[in-house]
Amino acid sequence: MHIDARQLPDNSLIEGDICIIGTGPAGSSIAMDWMNTKYKVILLESGGFEYDDKVQDLYKGKGTGQKYYPLRASRLSYFGGTSNHWAGMCAPFDNIDFMKRDWVPHSGWPITRQDLDPYYARACEKLKLGPNNFDIKFWQKEKPNMNPFPLDSSIVWHKIWQISAVSGFAGGFNKAYKDTIVNARNIHLYTYATVVNINANDSVKEITSVTVKNHAGKTHTVKAKHFILAGGTIQNARMLLASNTQAPKGLGNDNDLVGRFFMEHLEIDTAEMWLLKPFPTDLFNWSPIWCEFAITEKVQFEKKITNGTCGPMPLAWAKNSKPRMETWQNEDPRKSADNMFKNWDEAGKLAAKENQGAITRAFSFQTRIEQAPNPDSRITIGPEKDELGVPRANLNWALTDLDKRSIRTINKIIGEQVGRSGVGRVRLKDFIQDENDMSWPEGTNGGWHHMGTTRMSDSPKTGVVDANCQAFGLSNLYVAGAACYATAAAPNPTFTLVALSLRLSDYVKTKMGTA
Amino acid sequence: MKRQQFVLLGAAGIAALAVPSYWYYFTDADYDPVLARPEALSLIWEDAAIRDIGKKYKAMPAGESRQRGLVNALSTLKTKDSKATAEAIEQQIKKDFEAGNTVMVDGWILSKTEARQCALYSTTPQKQ
């Protein structure tokens, strides 16, 4: 069922069993998991079914520290959330990503990879992936010509991604699931229902309701037994910090952790790989799978680096394309996307002219690497408020020396392995050659992967949510999505955040007695 | 012998020693040109690039700048014929990478052996 909250009488009361705030992959996956149950699900979406400038304006915010994309343009506020922009890349986290690593401060999750495995299987269904198998050996049997490079697999391995059929290119969750959700008997989707405050009981131990507003001037109250914040990493933290009339530091923020540890994936061109002769493989052709060179757990322990991967792109295209941090700077996300794709098209034409049909032997490495958790990399709220009266979120993006050292080491290791294999030679770009240089170039991209602002831990002293994604100190408030990540891992976050959200859904069902 | 003649004769002797040293190494019957030919790199680099890398390697603080030293180091791989020598060099390059015996020259991750080859090549006469 769909209701446009602008059409409701002012000060309407909306009641349900579970209230999910946000319709991106996290919120929508949870909502669909409750379909055909006896429970009434209230699903709140700030925007409508299409892009709306006024609603998108609510996402404006300031950036400080390392140069970042405009906050207004780095996520989307309409049904389906940022999946409307999503490239569709899906790969599970590795075992090491959940481990406490003594060289990575603040690392270690209160859950393991094995805890998530059953949910990865279910996430495959929501994300319309192929079989839940990311082993290169499986794909070599499935598809022809999936030839890996002859690298020492005890040092460098081939990590596989699947490309979701629910990507932004295919219309995201919006196109895939709008009808499913709207037609679900027990899901009540309210569009134009922006949460402006989370209200707790007198002892601030339980959430009683949320207040929603819209640009039509309407204000409504939503009551439920359980509330799940699924508005994205930045917005989830913002809402907790802004709900500060009963808790001056913000809800769930007694230990000043909400908003801290904002993490991204650094995605930067780092090196060139020149093959001595053409290497026949379709592993790097994007469809149906994608592959990147990854560093084994053993080597990460030895070298004390963070986790990251290198994906090869044709060099002629890469050197003619501008960094995304340069092309994605328009506050309008549509214009930013247009700028980026236009630049890629131009790069493609220049590359074709250069190559003149020759088989490509020269590649650029794009390294995607986890940012080490850094408490100074954070979302805060400032004095400026948006049109609905909510303090705006601001980002200070801060990187560490470990990030720089890791990116250099990963590329050096892969360079050595490529050389050893006799396949080619690798040249590191200038900015990672000098071991003592900890600076970052202007073109240091993020992947638009927002993580960590309500991190998961086994103690409220070190986290905002527990192993079940329940907010410490609040009996019925949960956070769904990558905001709960304790570390960022190597691959794109969406597959794991859907898995984690489905796990949270099961937990809430257990509490409701409907598991 | 008068002093002036001695000086002149001495100068001639110095001049004899100042004849380009590559002449000595590269015309020596024992020298195999394969030592200064980085085969793998020649598949991705032209002559000028190999020389450039060779010069950069020689200029590095830990680089080997002396021609004699380079020839001596590479000559340990010399065998009975050029083909076998080339194979021995290829094997040594692989061992270098396996053992982490690599250098970074202008960002390139190279085997020490092939860096030496580039360095030695950079001392040979350029083709006209």
Describe this structure in words.
- The complex is a heterodimer of chains A (515) and B (128).
- By secondary structure, chain A is an alpha/beta fold.
- Chain A is 26% helix and 22% strand.
- Chain A has helices at 25-33, 53-56, 113-126, 136-142, 172-183, 233-242, 297-303, 315-320, 324-327, 333-355, 401-421, 494-512; strands spanning 2-4, 13-15, 18-21, 41-44, 63-65, 89-90, 156-163, 187-191, 194-200, 207-213, 219-223, 226-229, 265-275, 289-295, 308-314, 362-370, 378-385, 391-397, 424-428, 445-446, 477-479.
- In chain A, a hairpin with a 5-residue loop joins strand 17 (378-385) and strand 18.
- In chain B, 56% of the residues lie in helices and 6% in strands.
- Chain B is globular and about 35 Å long.
- In chain B, helix 4 (67-75) packs across helix 6.
- Chain B contains six helices and two strands, in the order H-H-H-H-H-E-E-H.
- Chain B has 128 residues and is mostly helical.
- At the A-B interface, strand 13, helix 11 and strand 19 of A face helix 5 and strand 2 of B.
What ranges of chain B have pLDDT less than 50 throughout 5 or more consecutive residues? 1-22
> Count the strands of chain A?
21
Range of helix content of chain A: 25-40%
Multimeric state of these chains?
heterodimer
Shape by Cα distribution of chain A: globular
Would you count the extended β strands of chain B for me? 2
* Class inferred from helices and paired strands of chain B: mainly alpha
Strand content of chain B: 5-15%
Please state roughly what percent of the residues of chain A sit in beta strands, choosing from under 5%, 5-15%, 15-25%, 25-35%, 35-45% or over 45%.
15-25%
Kindly name the structural category of chain A.
alpha/beta
Question: Main sheet of chain B: which strands, in order across?
Answer: 1-2
**Mean pLDDT across all amino acids of chain A:** 97
Q: Biggest protein-protein interface?
A: A-B, 23 and 17 residues
The helical percent of chain B reads: 55-70%
Q: Over the alpha carbons, how many angstroms does the gyration radius of chain B reach?
A: 17 Å
